[in-house]
Amino acid sequence: MSDGSSFYITTPIFYVNDVPHIGHAYTEVAADVLARWHRQAGDPTWFLTGTDEHGQKILRTATANGVSPKEWADRLVETAWQPLLKTINISNDDFIRTTDERHEVNVQLFLQRLFDAGYIYTGEYEGFYCVGCEEYKQPSDLVDGTGQYEGQQVCAIHSKPVELLQERNYFFRMSDFTQPLLDLYEANPTFIQPESVRNEIVSFVKQGLTDLSISRQTFDWGIKVPWDDTHVVYVWFDALLNYITAAGYGYDDEKFEKLWPATHIVGKDIARFHAVIWPAMLMAAGLDVPKQVFGHGWLLVGGEKMSKSKLTGIAPNQITDTFGSDAFRYYFMSAINFGQDGSFSWEDLSARYQAELANGFGNLASRVIAMVNRYFDGEIPDPGISEGADERVRTVERRVVDDADEAISRLAIHEALSSIWELVDELNGYITAQEPWALAKKPELQDRLKTVLFTAIRGLGTLAVLLSPVVPDAAAKLWTALGGVGDITDVALRTAYHWETDGKVWPLEPLFPRIETIEGGDGPGSQSAPDAPAPAPAPGTPAASAPSTPAAADSNRGPESRDAATKAPAVHAVAPDAS
Ligand code: ME8
């Protein structure tokens, strides 16, 4: 059936009831880094993202805003979700909306096939439904409400009351798949990652699955059940199918065979839908299950999952307007172990920006290129005889390429970045130890100076190629300054150290200009409405210098107060550092 030769990677399709926050952007960036990495390594790659537009949650939001759900979805996709992809420089190959015809028609086809195969029956259901999750909840999923919901049972994720529903619906025989799923998890131990998510799901399935209600009758914002148009398809059943309807299922067999199965990057909150319901649906339809489901951790605010419903959402452009999209991408990929939770803080972002991007990487690039310009009029010198230190740089260069690629194959993006940073540190140590500025003063050491700058330039080019999937804009600028041949995204990543230059460097503006953080600034707090994007943090006074040392890599940082995390400090870019 499917040849599975492609690297087909997906994000969840996001609900359009509201605008994106940095949690959604985090998933997008992670999937994008993986997609860019594989693409640049020469693997046939396809990256899908999109929006989830049906269901009660969207219907209620649209109604509350006095428009039809389709009008609402169109507005949000156009003004918020598509622009997000530009804000954080996402290289998706496709964008699916569940209101696309290619999706709606083929959801019906899929459902009809399951119905014809006997996997669907009519039944009664009574249970507690959380509209925020779009899911029936078990009593164990509920907690005691606080504040205005004191005395009521609320959803543990949304902290809002659940609704008691009693409906006559169509059911999917999911219980048939308890054992096949357990067999799948055992035969393919990396099917669900990371280990913590896998363990939770395996123990959940071991308790035995119940059948799943897959239609709703009390509202009509959804895809009609093909044999009974008084029902619409349950929003999760509809949404999960996006991964195959976008890949050609039902209308382009060749494309589908080439792409499917996919690697799904999702937040751990929805890993169960992807690792239980989704493979069960696929098995019932006789299709391959996904290659892998990776449930990443949550961005926390005040120790809780950052979320719009709790007003702790931070708009991605609050960060990118000041720090830029590269810094956004680098920060979230390096500061949080992919798979674990992490707390966002403005202080940590500023500190890492300054120490790692501006000083560690950007300054290294500027200095080396400036020296080639100054001492050799921009011509990259031919090296003389190599010494141990030069060999060592070359060895590190090769090793980190392999190590980073190996880490990416395990989706350990943070590990790939720490490997790459070994080369940044090695090159900085090399320049400090070799003191090319001192060599330049002694004509008899010209050959040594040539070797040192040649070695440093080679290392910088390798860094540019390796960092291109993470900080694409900065990498492309550096590439141009190094006289890199062709487009950097065409340079084979797994042999990055073979990169080619036309032999001449060009002046390089600072890749990461210095940014001043002003303590006590009163930046925007929670999310704004979709038609009124959050303003950029306002410049303010007095200035306090940004911390100069990196915060320890710590994905389990203690909770900050909500205010501290959601309020941006007042920050502004200052004139480029001339060093
Ligand atoms: O669940 N930290 O959509 P959704 C990290 N439509 N990631 C976060 C996050 C946080 N605090 N908050 C959200 C849905 N996310 C369904 C998906 S797929 C067939 C249907 C990210 O808009 C994370 O990826 O509620 C999470 O899984 C997703 O947004 C939920 O997005």
From TrEMBL:
'HIGH' region (motif): residue ranges: 14-24
Record's cofactor remark: Binds 1 zinc ion per subunit.
Gene Ontology BP term (one): methionyl-tRNA aminoacylation
KW Zinc (keyword) present: yes
Domain of life per record: Bacteria
Cofactor(s) essential for the protein: Zn(2+)
Cellular component terms (Gene Ontology): cytoplasm
SUPFAM superfamilies: Anticodon-binding domain of a subclass of class I aminoacyl-tRNA synthetases (SSF47323), Nucleotidylyl transferase (SSF52374)
Domain Methionyl/Leucyl tRNA synthetase: residue ranges: 8-368
Broad class of where this protein is predominantly found: cytoplasm
InterPro entries: Anticodon_Met (IPR041872), M/V/L/I-tRNA-synth_anticd-bd (IPR013155), Met-tRNA_synth (IPR014758), Met-tRNA_synth_2 (IPR023457), Methionyl/Leucyl_tRNA_Synth (IPR015413), MetRS_core (IPR033911), Rossmann-like_a/b/a_fold (IPR014729), tRNAsynth_Ia_anticodon-bd (IPR009080)
Similarity annotation: Belongs to the class-I aminoacyl-tRNA synthetase family. MetG type 2A subfamily.
HAMAP family, per the entry: Met_tRNA_synth_type2
NCBIfam families: metG (TIGR00398), PRK12267.1 (NF008900)
Complex formation: Monomer.
Protein name listed in UniProt: Methionine--tRNA ligase
Source organism: Subtercola lobariae
Gene for this chain: metG
